[in-house]
Specification:
This protein is an alpha+beta fold. It contains six helices and four strands. A two-stranded antiparallel ribbon has the order 1-2. Strands 3-4 form a two-stranded antiparallel ribbon. Strand 1 and strand 2 (86-89) form a beta hairpin. The two termini are 36 Å apart.
């Protein structure tokens, strides 16, 4: 879906080659393009999630547009063209590949640093009790699915059958 969204964004960027348009028509076209990219990329199934993804899409787009506008306004770059609200960078294939590899390496590095820090904060020693039996397990706190117990709203952990084996009789496990 991400590749399809990126591909559709790339296809829609050909609007840079169109004649300059009325600002209202351009706004309407860009709004439709944005909706389509978000729908393609995130496979939205409810309105609230769509609005979150749409807002995030615009936040990132505005941030990118602001940075590019600042750089183009303050520094004279050759090979940067702006038309119909789209920016085109005239880069060679080798430069584009090198920049892409560097950016992906940065993203992976930042992700690993953040996840390494978060992972230590998310591991808990949990004791599970059933009658007079108990067992200790290392549990990972919910990392994004927001699964909650339907009765009291507490976070949920998922355990393997081997952990339950220590707490239940064999006939109880068969019923699960």
């Amino acid at each position: 879906r991400f590749l399809a969204g990126a591909f559709s964004g790339g296809i829609f960027s050909f609007i840079i080659f169109a004649e300059p348009m009325n600002i209202f028509l351009l706004f309407f076209i860009r709004l439709i393009i944005s909706v389509l990219i978000v729908l393609i990329t995130f496979c939205i199934n409810n309105f609230r999630r769509f609005m979150k993804c749409f807002a995030g899409f615009f936040l990132i787009s505005f941030l990118y547009a602001g940075v590019v506008y600042f750089l183009v306004s303050c520094f004279s770059f050759s090979g940067v063209y702006v038309n119909n609200g789209f920016t085109y960078f005239d880069l060679g294939a080798v430069s584009l590949i090198i920049i892409t590899v560097i950016l992906f390496a940065c993203i992976i590095l930042i992700n690993r640093i953040i996840l390494a820090k978060k992972k230590a904060d998310l591991l808990y020693d949990v004791s599970i009790f059933r009658g007079d039996r108990s067992t200790k397990v290392c549990a990972l706190y919910d990392t994004g699915n927001n699964v909650k117990d339907i009765y009291n709203g507490s976070p949920v952990i998922i355990v393997s059958i081997s952990v339950l084996d220590k707490l239940m009789d064999n006939d109880e496990l068969v019923r699960l």
